[in-house]
Design a protein that fits this description.
The protein is mainly alpha-helical. The chain contains 9 helices and 4 strands; from the N terminus they run αββααβααβαααα. A two-stranded antiparallel ribbon has the order 1-2. The chain has a two-stranded parallel sheet with strand order 3-4. Strand 1 and strand 2 form a beta hairpin. The protein is globular.
């Protein structure tokens, strides 16, 4: 993560500056998430949306009017995720693992699912992240995005994360990192 922070510090700085001007707020965004053993922490991201009091859902669609023009580019290239290298550095996250949920979604996990998923550090990428890399687009094409997320996508992510944890290996983590990089580049 130190190497990633050094290599991408210029890109994080540029994205932060653009985001600050584009959104009219601090370009860094921190959101409380649920980590290993249910411990709450703040995930670091580049801000890609304008603030709005009329939206209360944590579900985002690609057509969300809060997403700024520059924010949509930052999101598409996954640059908004780069500040999470700091979360990896301080031990709150790892490179690969289940994405950390917001409290409302982590609370939906069944007890056995919670024990498994919260037994590992959450990751920047993983099998569920790769499968649903276009989640915002998928949600923008369904009639009821919140219902679709709750009944289809989220349960599938939970199953993918449990399978990932059951078969954890250094080799598979390297493959997920490589697939993530290739998805971003191509």
């Amino acid at each position: 993560s130190i190497l990633g922070l050094i290599i991408f510090s210029w890109l994080i700085l540029i994205a932060w500056l653009f985001s600050t001007f584009d959104t009219g707020a601090n370009g860094f965004y921190r959101q409380v998430r649920v980590g290993k053993n249910g411990r709450l922490f703040k995930v670091n991201k580049i801000r890609t949306m304008s603030r709005s009091n009329s939206f209360t859902s944590t579900i985002t669609q690609s057509s969300d009017p809060r997403i700024t023009k520059i924010g949509s580019i930052i999101r598409r290239l996954k640059i908004d995720e780069l500040p999470q290298l700091w979360n990896v550095f301080i031990g709150e996250m790892s490179f690969v693992g289940p994405r950390p949920d917001v409290q409302g979604y982590a609370d939906r996990l069944e007890e056995e699912e919670k024990c498994i998923i919260l037994s590992v550090r959450p990751g920047i990428t993983g099998p569920a992240t790769l499968k649903y890399r276009n989640e915002e687009y998928i949600l923008s094409k369904v009639k009821d995005p919140i219902k679709y997320n709750n009944e289809v996508i989220y349960p599938d992510k939970v199953n993918l994360n449990i399978k990932y944890i059951d078969t954890l290996s250094f080799k598979s983590d390297l493959l997920y990192i490589l697939k993530t990089i290739l998805n971003i580049l191509f």
